[in-house]
Amino acid sequence: MFDTYDKMTTSQRRNFSDVANKLLANNFLARDKKDNRDDYYFVISYKDLFDEYFQVINYELNVDRELGYVELANNTNAPTIKFKKEESIVLLILRVLYHEKMQQTSLNDNVVISVSDIHDKYDYLEMKKKINKTDLINILRMARRYNLIESQGDITNSQTKLVIFPTILCALKTSNIEDVYRHVQKISSDGGNLDEKA
Question: How far is CA 90 from the centre of its chain?
């Protein structure tokens, strides 16, 4: 590890530190998110060094080059964050929308929805309580901070487009979309919270 690090320029070392701290703070990098792209390719270039660095603190770096994301996973299997009920529901809805849109698009295309699609899915799922605009905006900002989505305009506008990144697959670990629907119904009915990686 130290051999590679010693051969780095001062700028590369600073970049290594910045990217490592970003991963520790946000867990994910999405290749197609503009402010992640350079960091994503830097991780690819120095993956062995990042692997060794994170192994020391019991983390694992997972890279999916096909979908274009980097995930920093905690090997203790303990969730990094416990989401509140409303946050859990919105993240699960984003996961459902990602799944649905992926059925209609190619692997090379980004999944794009509108803010209003989230409200429509709330209606479809017959949620007992609708989410208010302020809470939704705060949750979308949180999802953007964790590199799960990117807005293409003002997120206070219901017609604004949102790109959902493949990192949503890591944040909500399930291969079965029916499990996601069951999570939504359970949280909605019993007021539970969702423990996940983001």
Answer: 12
